[in-house]
Amino acid sequence: MSAPEPEACPHGKPFSRARLLFFWAPVLLLLFADLWTKSWAFMMIGDGIVPVSGTWLAFVKVWNPGGVFGLGQNWTTALTVIRVIAVFGLFVVAARQADHHRRGLFTLGLLSAGALGNLYDNLSRWLPWDGNGMVRDFVMVDLGSAPTWWPDVIPWLFHPWPIFNLADSCISVGFLLLIFGWAKVQWALNPSSS
């Protein structure tokens, strides 16, 4: 007789050890780190570009009214609504993961922390904390001009890379983990198996 399948939808255990360690800990730690680094950068960095390491890494304060890579510059309110829905959706999907889907829980934690960090900035337009509704970005990576071996038909995106923050990094890493199949995530609302 074979062992029963692990429960794919462990309702009633939102704070199991696996969830605390692999979902909630990354969400809380990375959200705190994102908000702290943004506050630090916007208090300590003056106007202009502040070199950190050679010419390839610098800090510069930028208010981003749009989304990733500065897309949707005139859609701040719409992007705020989308982020609210995304956070809610990520929490629902995380609640439906089996405890043994640790990579999936961690990946959902990365995505949730990133979405919450940028949503915090967006909500400053309506809620009583400092801000103007735009996302605070401050990390600039510039790898210089395209190398001679780089094909002309492919754009060189690293001169400079769009300015970003820790929340953007969390979202990017989370998407890469999903795209390359490293994280197993159960997306179905009523999964029948794990």
Number of helices: 4
Largest sheet composition: 3 strands, antiparallel
Question: Whole-number average pLDDT?
Answer: 86
Q: Give the oligomeric state.
A: single chain
User: What percentage of amino acids are in beta strands?
Assistant: 5-15%
Shape from CA axes?
globular
Count of structural domains: 1
Could you give the order of strands across the largest sheet? 1-2-3
* Uncertain spans: 4-12
Strands, count: 3
Euclidean distance between termini CA atoms: 19 Å
- Class based on secondary structure composition and strand pairing: mainly alpha
The SSE order reads HEEHHEH
Give the proportion of residues in helices.
40-55%
What is the alpha-carbon Rg in Å? 19 Å
Concise structural overview:
The protein is mostly helical and 194 residues long.
Any overview of this molecule?
The protein has 194 residues and is mostly helical. It has one domain. It has helices spanning 17-44, 76-95, 102-123, 166-179; strands at 50-53, 57-64, 135-141. It has a 3-stranded antiparallel β-sheet with strand order 1-2-3. Strand 1 and strand 2 (57-64) form a beta hairpin. Helix 1 packs parallel to helix 3 (102-123) and helix 3 runs antiparallel to helix 4. The longest helix has 28 residues, at 17-44. The two termini are 19 Å apart.
